[in-house]
Amino acid sequence: MSDAVAATNDLPIDLTLSDDELDAHREHITQFIRRVVDDAGADGAVIGLSGGIDSTLTAHLAVEALGEGAVRGLVLPSEVNTEGNMSDAERVAELLDIEYDVVDIEPIVDAFFEAAPLENVDDRIGSDPLRTAAGNVRVRTRGVLNYFVANAESRIVLGTGNRSETLTGYFTKYGDQAVDCNPIGNLYKRQVRQLADYVGVPQDLVEKPPSAEMWAGQTDEEEMGLSYDLLDAILVLHVDGPLSASATASTLDVDDSVVARVDELYAQSEHKRHLPPAPDALSL
Ligand SMILES: Nc1ncnc2c1ncn2[C@@H]1O[C@H](COP(=O)(O)OP(=O)(O)OC[C@H]2O[C@@H]([n+]3cccc(C(=O)O)c3)[C@H](O)[C@@H]2O)[C@@H](O)[C@H]1O
Ligand SMILES: Nc1ncnc2c1ncn2[C@@H]1O[C@H](COP(=O)(O)OP(=O)(O)OP(=O)(O)O)[C@@H](O)[C@H]1O
Ligand SMILES: [Mg+2]
Asked: Biological process GO terms, please (predicted)?
């Protein structure tokens, strides 16, 4: 394990996976990807590449599972993505030797806002709720492009959701969630970084602060108001685990309000983890 991954591990709970466990996850995930593609009768996979760790690790494991010829990358910059992240996304595609396209989504997003049924969009877009709504439009636009390629070329869309995001609802409903499978969906964020490090993802990508890039300068940890390492510990001990909220707070030596905040994120995002509900069938 690199120093950068080890250094963050200063909590009284150790989520660090052993090499045997990392090998087991690697094998389990690559088998999963092969099975999903085979079961769908698809010819391969398509994945959005953002230069972040989730898509980088997922693409890496997809190439291990399917071979580089069966994986296609889409790098989809908008005006809020940094050039650094977009060139990292291209670097990942080149390191993995996969076919990829770069498509500027801003003209699509511009056309959308011109047609959108809202007053004074330009004046309101800098602050919520429009800032998040606009970010979600960019995220959903990427989903449309992913599915266009999947439909046209008989591919499945690889998602990059991890367990920390799923449990907190930290994703756009029918945006980056609109995928055919989530190969790293059973790994907490810290474990994503660790597995990425283990399979040889470049260090600078492993160490980069996670960002949804929904607006300029956004980082996940700032928006959520807590670090992934602390979030993961609360998820493992409490949301997925057996400890009460107060026992979790005292184990981690944090205020009860921190655990309450995670409980709130979990409860408020319940709807994102299910298919849309409908009333029960009536027998008339
Ligand atoms: N109880 C309920 N039952 C059924 N539906 C419910 C609902 N509450 C809200 N909704 C629906 O859900 C909508 C809100 O959900 P949604 O549209 O997703 O929007 P929302 O959750 O407000 O925003 C997405 C969040 O995910 C973050 N994100 C997005 C994309 C990528 C990443 C990343 O890590 O890369 C992070 C982003 O920064 C932001 O915090 C509401 O407008 C409403 O339509
Ligand atoms: N500019 C982009 N071009 C193509 N795909 C993108 C872009 N931005 C986001 N995505 C897709 O949306 C997914 C969700 O973004 P998210 O930020 O959660 O993951 P990430 O960028 O891979 O990792 P990190 O959390 O470290 O930033 C990405 O993994 C990627 O598949
Ligand atoms: Mg990102």
From this structure: NAD+ biosynthetic process
